[in-house]
Amino acid sequence: MSNRIDVRKTYKLFINGAFPRTESGRTYEVKNAKGVFIANPCLASRKDLKDAVVAARAAQHGWNKATAYNKGQILYRLAEMLEGRRAQFVDEIVTITGVSKAKAEKEVTDSVDRLVWYAGWTDKISSLSGALNPVAGPYYNFTIPESMGVIAAIAPEAPSLLGLIDSIAPIIVGGNTVVVLASTKAPLSAMSFAEVIATSDVPAGVINILTGKKDEITPWMASHMDIDGLDVSGLSAKKHADVKTAGTENLKRIYSFKSADPGRILAFMENKTVWHPIGL
Amino acid sequence: MSFYGLVDGTEASLKKYLGSLSGVDQVGADARAAMLATRSIKTTSKRWAIDTAITMVDLTTLEGADTPGKVKALCTKAVRPDPTDSTVPSVGAVCVYNDMVEIARTHLDLIGGQHVGVAAVSTAFPSGRASMVVKIQDTKDAVEAGASEIDMVIDRGAFLSGRYIEVFDEIVQIREVCGTKAHLKVIFETGELVTYDNVRKASFLAMAAGADFIKTSTGKVAPAATAPVVLVMLEAVRDFYAMTQVRIGVKPAGGIRNTKDAIKQLVLVNETAGPEWLKPSLFRIGASALLNDLLMQRMKMDDGYYASPQYVTID
After folding, report:
1. B215 catalytic, yes or no?
2. What integer pLDDT is reported at residue A279 of this predicted model?
3. A80, A242, B216, B281: which has the highest count of C-beta atoms within 10 A?
């Protein structure tokens, strides 16, 4: 018989490369599919969002300046770290959603593969979507996609890990930084994924993860003047109109996605056109 | 010079005066400052605190790369911090290097900023390592150029090696140069004074020598205006008022970057020295980045949503 007491993980937020508790001191209960208590993650407040946006803004210039090669390496590193902790993620997904182990394993495998896939896009997106435009004059005229800035995202409720990765990766591929609100019902993999991020050379502030209630955080995301775009894929369609109304005030780009494709990366990029004289 | 009747200008009397001071309970000061920092200031109180803090800002630029253009831009911002909102009050003063004083004063007068003071850092700022002749000339230059406030640094080397009378005489001489034209703020550089006892001692020394304000730091050394240090200085001005019926001002500078920090300072003032000190003539905050954060918090309170740094000026 062992007298050892369980060492349980405290689920905190991930802001600016650190794991703070919510400034509000609030938590909420997460239960599994059968109603059994699992954990007390943080119930993030609007002030946590504010802090995360400050961190994301400060990190954006440096992340945008990093070479495409470097960004790709870091995204690939995320995949490596996730692969190494496969068992833990499978276990968390099974515990909280009650799906079979095989199904959970598939989600983790898909997540790793998805990260590798996004990693590959970093040095290809501008050549594939950019253009050399024909103009009537002795000039080259290029159009290239550039980062938009700080993007907020609402991750879908399920699948909690793969959905989170689809909310984060396409945004940072384009040189943006992100503040993501994780799945409310299944936030455990999100906070464990933050540990993966923390060990993957992702600069502090590039990815920030909050856990909490969508209805509480979304309006503040939509109205925040320093968030340039918003991915509302995790929000039910009937709520899109409200968010879009609030976001119109500050010209926020608001999109929702159903699948992972390069369009998802380009949605949060802006095209820049450059004229360059042709020499003799 | 009467020195409030506390000392007669001799080394013996100064030693006796400083020796009579009680020590500072370091753990107690840290705990009290930490406790006061937990006060929550909301809604109308917060609004009042933000506007009060704006009027107390000494908007500062002390860089080797300062240019006349930058100083003029800073003056414009000092008079009207938010160009889109005329209800935002002007700041207390602009704080610049000696050679920029005339440019600042002229520009402020030109744009209707007569009510905004110009503070000049003086006496071989920030190190204080120069001969007395140079320090006096430095101060004279600034006063003649139109500085209404002189921020002098003390010779920390002399202070730390116990040559208090040297520090005292220096302050007295600079006070004389300032005359009635300029207020004198004495900078201790508390980050170099090591103990709270030294901070208290320096405060009483400077106040007796004729300082109108005591100021924590130059902003060039960390740590700068930590809450316990400001607390110790506020207790010193409170105790000095009890002894002499004269109110001396306090100016924390360095490391106060956001609204939360500024409001914590105001709480310290109110709870330590008292509400009489909650005005720009007795409390100033030396800062540069702080003003933008105060403006953004003000916008947030007016608009109901978070503001972006893209809507305030770049310093």
Report:
1. yes
2. 77
3. B216
